[in-house]
Amino acid sequence: MLYTSGTTGDPKGCVYHHRGAYLNALGNMFTVGLGRDSVYLWTLPMFHCDGWTFTWGVTAAMATHVCLRDVDPAVVYRLINDENVTHMCGAPIVLNMLAHAPDESKSSFPQRVEIATGGAAPPSAVIETMEENGFNVTHLYGLTETYGPATVCVPQDDWPNLAVNERSARMARQGVHYTTLEGATVKNPDTMEEVPWDSETMGEVMIRGNTVMKGYLKNTQATDTAFSGGWFHTGDLAVRHPDSYIEVKDRSKDIIISGGENISSLEVEEALYRHPAVLEAAVVARSDEKWGEAPCAFVTLHDGAVATADDIITFCREQLAHYKSPKTVVFGPLPKTSTGKIQKFVLRHEAENLEN
Which domain does 108 fall in, by range? Predict the structure, then answer.
């Protein structure tokens, strides 16, 4: 049994079964290319979905485990070189730490390191920096309810010919379902009909197969709601592209409705991460007398960097429609779970209690 990390403030116990665990472990082994010569560095907590079942996948491949107690970028870079690391996993915050580590903490290594990331799509600027530092980034998508990864963004042959920012945006998509998963799709949660593959029509990501949990521990109501219509409802809003790839636009609870227009918090965060002074960013809805809701940005700056709220807002307006740009900017550290995920429910509470 694994508990969800509680980013919404309501952690629940997910009941696993052995079939799902071993299938997802083998799916990981196949998807990221683990073999007997692979060396896997643990920058992902093993308690998080059982290390996304890589605990067993790496072992099944007869590969080598290299363990860490804390994610220190200087130690990570040193171990990559000293232990000939070939594979890693980590939440976007880990990629952010490695991408923005001080130059004196970084060290070069001759091999390309495959690093898989999950959770919210990493900002394209972070993907670009990781590639420059010697990593190949693969974006996985899943939840504790799906034993960790359920879909993978497989690079296509024409992507290397795209501009860097366009290619990294493609890499941040959630992609197609694992070989070991029956299906992942985007449906209208009310009608349970699949959305058209037009890159525009929003629906909810739904998943089913043997690598989905049995249900929530002692919570029949939550289980029945999550599996209504015969599919597991993820709560993630997404579109489907003509190439069948899924792209998550936001959590259903994180969509900001301003003046009747839907604003994706992920789109605003993507713009914020491109500001040279921004280290971390999260965007939530804040009540607004005129518009109903408006984007409120919580931002952590790089050490020594200087930026004002007006600087951040002006920067966003240069990249986004003005109504999508934050009306409020709050500076400081962001609250996180033990697995490094930003707790937006805490930020929503803080946003509503800010003085005008």
Answer: 1-252
